[in-house]
Amino acid sequence: MDFSLNEEQHMLQESISRLLATECPLSDIRELVNSDGNNLSEVQQKIADSGIAGILIPEDLGGVGLTLLDAALIAETLGHAVAPVPFIASSVMAPIALLEAGGDEQKEKWLPQIASGAVVFGAGVTEQIGNREDRGITENTDGLNGTAMFVLDGMSADMLIIADDSGCMHLVDSQASGVSRQKLKTIDRTRSVAEVTLEGVAAEPLPGSRSNGEPLRKTVDAGRVILAADTLGAAQNMLDKSIAYAKERKQFNRVIGSFQAVKHMCSEMVAELEPCRSLVWYTAYADASIPDEARMMACHAKAHLSEVGQFVARTATEVHGGMGVTDLLGLHYWFKRIGFNRQLLGAPELVREEAAQAQGWI
Prior knowledge:
By secondary structure, the protein is an alpha+beta fold. The protein contains 11 helices and 10 strands.
């Protein structure tokens, strides 16, 4: 039996890679980051035109109708290019939340707009993973109140999916009265992350999440798979850059790749990273085909890629020596993306605990 990607999936990755090579070169990433993403709309639309935005949305609602595995392949490519475009929340978490918990009218209204790129969604669910005492969203008679931290794609979003303290997810207009957003200055400037404060905001609940926590869990788990895939792509790029640099950089009239210590560093990165590819693929495949394993595998993939990604990021920087920390090479963009992916939607220690709970160990 062949467990490798099929021809269409290879073509999908290759086409997105060519698009990103043209639209998101390192020089443009520097400019976008330094302008706080103010020049991002044109790039976003070209990405949406490629079909990425509707990757999980059924064809009868304007999307492509593919699977989480295909979305993970795209995320891997985006991470490899450290592309500063909304994807995890708007193209993955929001469609899954709507498909799993939304009413028919909500699906028919919002999913075609997501697929076309007309609307960008943000996702605020982190309070369901680890909440500060003074943060969280409550629902009462006057609407939603409280603060949601680390809302993914939050600053570029037209609409938000916000989970309250009970686990119910709500549709919130980012421009509605009572909504205020503050851009969070994280180490990764390629991601749009916001702190969203709500004061008596009228919201539209997703009815399927009102008394059932499964849609929220599936939304979070899908986000974790996409983060793991993004880290895989970013780490692969850092590895590729390290090998290329080791072949051309000379010390003592020899390329540094001929030194045993550098060979060992590159070999260790390969040995750690290569098995992660099949782990991410299997995890994304399990979402639809092996649902009993989906939650456990999402936790394992997120935790393991966080650790391996951190190792590759650190080792790749060491291979580059002093050049590795300069803006000339731009290696720090991938380093910081991997570091921030590690913390989003649960650090390794937390998601390992969730994996143990999913297996009934604790």
